[in-house]
Write a structure and sequence with these properties.
By secondary structure, the chain is mainly α. It contains 4 helices and no strands.
């Protein structure tokens, strides 16, 4: 077998590594049974599924029918933008509230895209703020500061 699709192969290897890591980490918790799941049950099986998916993707990259691709040079700028936006959200959450923090998270992390568009980033940010409000505030009843503390 020849490695034809390097992007899929290395993505599959990453999925396998993450899946195995999560599955092994979950063994530190009580598993329980399928009828009465313990805290380790879901992460264990999620890790197993991720590892199997990664293996399927990696093996598919070795087939003759696989599209031939190369792995581009790693772009650290994109990594710093995404991680920086997540860290910034965590830092400003209490002072700016969840609405503005989530909006900033999406808007800043959207800068990492090669096809960045302010209209799309703004629309996506508004949709995600609405989702956070519906899922976490209304649905789960979690208590977050909604608006900036100085208002």
């Amino acid at each position: 077998m020849q490695l034809r699709n390097k992007q899929d192969f290395w993505a599959g290897v990453m999925f396998v590594a993450l899946g195995v890591g999560f599955a092994l980490g979950a063994t530190n918790y009580s598993m329980g049974t399928a009828a009465r799941m313990g805290p380790g049950y879901f992460p264990f099986w999620l890790g197993v599924c991720l590892a199997v998916l990664g293996a399927v993707v990696a093996i598919g990259a070795l087939k003759e029918k696989a599209e031939e691709t190369e792995v581009d040079k790693f772009d650290f700028r994109i990594l710093f933008i995404i991680i920086g936006s997540v860290v910034l959200t965590g830092v400003v959450m209490n002072s700016l509230g969840i609405y503005i923090s989530v909006f900033l998270l999406v808007a800043i992390s959207s800068l990492a895209s090669h096809e960045f568009n302010w209209k799309v980033a703004g629309a996506t940010a508004i949709c995600l703020v609405l989702f956070v409000w519906l899922a976490f505030i209304k649905g789960l009843g979690l208590i977050f500061p909604l608006w900036p503390s100085f208002l």
